[in-house]
Amino acid sequence: MMIVLGPNRYGKAETRLVRVTRHGDAHSLKDLNVSTALSGDMERVHLSGDNAAVLPTDSQKNTVFAFAKRYGVGAIEDFALTLAQHFVDSQEPVRHARVAIEEYAWERNGALGHAFVRSGRETRVCVAHYDGSRAWVVSGLRDLVVLNTTNSEFWGYVRDEYTTLPETRDRVLATAVEASWRHTAAGEDGDGGDWDKTYEKARQALLAAFADTYSLSLQQTLYAMGSRVLTECPGVCEVRLSLPNRHHFEVDLSPFGLANDGEVYHAADRPYGLIEGAVLRDDAPDPGPAWQ
Ligand SMILES: O=c1[nH]c(=O)c2[nH]c(=O)[nH]c2[nH]1
């Protein structure tokens, strides 16, 4: 029997970076959570503790801060690619870099240029990979919370001896959308090179499809949402969605002599149905490491 080292990577997880840009009194703010992971010729450190190929995770964290100062922070996809390319191109033993970034949205608090309030928006995310010649970028969001008060049914499903769920022709449908979309072309969004524009288009497509799909199941809504992103965003070839079904149960008010005609609900937090799936173009290129 032989024991061998399997796939491995290492890096600094969750470097919290706030970058303030000051144009006179009008300041702007980027609030990020950056995770770097490097891989390559790392046998010796694992097998014998020889650290000669290891760029410390502390240096990776410092690079995040230094690059934020040196180059500024624009779209998170560009910042992630710049970091990934730097680690691979500057360190011979590093053959692959993965940089994942979460962005928390702030908006202005009133008219003052320096006052901000964390906005209730979803979290924007991206993951960039670079291997020395090719790049892969996945963008996305999580915690985009949506709810329809009607136009949702669920009936006609399998019944076995454990099925008690009543069929419904009218229910509340709610979810917290987690969506990721893979860009076809390495290192660009296929939409004029504007990551922010593609993000807004994809977000709008998700919202519009959730709102205007007459839903017979959350699975059907998931497919409609993924399809809409692909239709609206030409540079995107695959969308992955994870949709928790945030069940809203009509409360039985009859003990109190009250009717409940779709007016009072218990918003249950668990357990929840979890509907997940990918929607892609049939000519989508091989994803390589994009989803790792
Ligand atoms: O949209 C739904 N899909 C399901 O698969 C499911 N299962 C369930 O109990 N409720 C629902 N709702």
UniProtKB/TrEMBL annotation:
O2 binds at T57, N245. Belongs to the uricase family. Pfam families: Uricase. It catalyses: urate + O2 + H2O = 5-hydroxyisourate + H2O2. The active site is at K12 (charge relay system), T57 (charge relay system), H247 (charge relay system). The keyword Oxidoreductase applies. InterPro entries: Uricase. 5-hydroxyisourate binds at T57, F154, R171, Q219, N245. It comes from Microbispora oryzae. Its EC number is 1.7.3.3. This is Uricase. GO terms for molecular function: urate oxidase activity. Catalyzes the oxidation of uric acid to 5-hydroxyisourate, which is further processed to form (S)-allantoin. The gene is pucL. Urate binds at T57, D58, F154, R171, Q219, N245. GO terms for biological process: purine nucleobase metabolic process.
